[in-house]
Amino acid sequence: DVKVTQSSRYLVKRTGEKVFLECVQDMDHENMFWYRQDPGLGLRLIYFSYDVKMKEKGDIPEGYSVSREKKERFSLILESASTNQTSMYLCASSRTGGGGNTIYFGEGSWLTVV
Amino acid sequence: AQKVTQAQTEISVVEKEDVTLDCVYETRDTTYYLFWYKQPPSGELVFLIRRNSFDEQNEISGRYSWNFQKSTSSFNFTITASQVVDSAVYFCALSEWTTDSWGKFQFGAGTQVVVTP
């Protein structure tokens, strides 16, 4: 079975803190994604990576950065957390290709910024 | 532009009733893929089905069935004889076959299904 593991399920951080969300996948997938989920807005893509050290902006990259130093690991970084970044964050992975490959998700990380 | 529309925000049913979730998509590609995911309260999105644009056969898996109609750009999902464990948010998603898509998905806003005993 594909396994995408997000290191933290629940976090509470203060405004201005630097926040790291870590994600590891065990299926040797080339693609990795970070999504944000908010009520009524569905899933919105923050960043994705199609290879080690490669990254592309998604639909809402502002206030976020990412790091992919190893194929299995993709980190989302909030440089200076703000209250409007309180949300659920979902990491996902898939095999490479022009589309059509199933995306597999982790369990999600609930972040509260106070 | 919204590429995947799930017009139903929430559907409430009593156990054993059937429930149909609508999904309408928009694409100019001739090759594309459609997906359904289930998100129970625990949070993880669970993959349910993948369908490519060249395969319009309906599919049944246990109590789940899917109706794909290219003529109306719809990919609807029916749960037959619903159970309390079916309570979840269900997402429809579209993946277009383009060289620069990198496998990105367009998700609908999701439909919350509430099944009461």
Topology:
The complex is a heterodimer of chains A (114) and B (117).
Chain A: E1 4-6, E2 10-13, E3 19-25, E4 31-38, E5 42-51, E6 54-57, E7 64-70, E8 73-78, E9 87-94, E10 104-105, E11 109-113
Parallel strand pairs in A: 2-11
Antiparallel strand pairs in A: 1-3, 3-8, 4-5, 4-9, 5-6, 7-8, 9-10, 9-11
Chain B: E1 4-5, E2 10-14, E3 19-21, E4 24-25, E5 32-39, E6 46-52, E7 59-61, E8 64-69, E9 74-79, E10 88-96, E11 106-107, E12 111-116
Parallel strand pairs in B: 2-12
Antiparallel strand pairs in B: 1-4, 3-9, 5-6, 5-10, 7-8, 8-9, 10-11, 10-12
What do you see in this structure?
The complex is a heterodimer of chains A (114) and B (117). Chain A is globular, with a radius of gyration of 13 Å. Chain A is mainly β and 114 residues long. In chain A, strand 4 (31-38) and strand 5 form a beta hairpin. In chain A, strands 2, 4, 5, 6, 9, 10 and 11 form a seven-stranded mixed β-sheet that branches. Chain A has a four-stranded antiparallel β-sheet with strand order 1-3-8-7, with no helix packed on it. Chain A contains no helices and eleven strands. Chain A has strands at 4-6, 10-13, 19-25, 31-38, 42-51, 54-57, 64-70, 73-78, 87-94, 104-105, 109-113. With 117 residues, chain B is mostly beta strands. The termini of chain B are far apart. The mean pLDDT of chain B is 90. The A-B interface holds A 31, 33, 40-43, 45, 48, 50, 56, 58, 88, 90, 92, 94-108, 110 and B 9, 31-33, 35, 37, 42-47, 50, 52, 91, 93, 95-99, 101-105, 107-110.
